[in-house]
Design goal:
By secondary structure, the protein is of the alpha+beta class. The chain is 38% helix and 12% strand. It is globular and about 60 Å long.
């Protein structure tokens, strides 16, 4: 069993999975563990749709086709800033070009970039797709709670040999996805996530973006202002 430190620091977004099935009881166990994540006043705002088998396959065919045809919608909420600035813009570019560089995709190869992004809509071949929703009338604090729940899933999966890839890409299909999954209008889609056994031979899975050292984001407060 890996340590908590190993589970967190070894996590990365996996973009190629094996076709090996994940037992339903194991998926339930990971979600049950993650459900111990903290939430303000214990409201537990998370709701999860699990896609597998024929349902998952149909969703993948449908939405990959929609993406190829350019049938995308405006995101229901802005996951990213409307106007980018450094240092966030520099980090975003480094991540994007680092991923494409790992795959040998050069700048300007739009078709190959499109094909790689389209893999989001087949959950990168993971046998399990997760779609997360939250009630629309909940406030920002519950969204913060949701982030802790998502992180808990990604960490809890690893000791069982499973890996994940959280996906904001599904947000451009929020309206169609809501209809096809019969998600009631009182809920909004937060994101998706791929879950499965990673392909150890896939080059794309070797990519790990750089992370800041603690000194870059930590300030030790040694005196107070008057």
């Amino acid at each position: 069993m890996m340590t908590v430190e190993e589970a967190i620091t070894g996590r990365r977004s996996i973009r190629a999975f094996l076709p090996r099935p994940v037992p339903r009881e194991l998926v339930e166990r990971v979600l049950l563990i993650a459900g111990r994540a903290p939430s303000g006043s214990n409201v537990q705002p998370w709701k999860v749709r699990v896609l597998e088998g024929a349902v998952r396959d149909e969703i993948c065919r449908d939405f990959t086709g929609r993406y190829d045809r350019g049938e995308v919608s405006k995101r229901e909420y802005n996951y990213y800033p409307e106007k980018w600035r450094d240092p966030y813009l520099a980090r975003r570019r480094a991540c994007g070009w680092g991923l494409y560089g790992t795959l040998g995709i050069a700048r300007g190869e739009k078709e190959r970039m499109h094909a790689q992004h389209a893999r989001n809509y087949c959950f990168f071949d993971a046998p399990i797709g997760l779609i997360f929703t939250i009630d629309r009338d909940l406030e920002l604090g519950s969204w913060l709670d949701y982030g802790m729940f998502l992180e808990a899933i990604m960490v809890a999966a690893r000791p069982f040999g499973l890996e994940t890839c959280p996906q904001a890409a599904w947000l451009v299909f929020h309206d169609v996805l809501q209809r096809r999954l019969r998600i009631p209008p009182e809920e909004t889609i937060v994101c998706g996530m791929a879950l499965g056994y990673p392909d150890p031979d896939a080059k794309v899975n070797t990519f790990t973006p750089e992370r800041m050292e603690a000194g870059e984001f930590v300030t030790w407060v040694e005196e107070l202002a008057e």
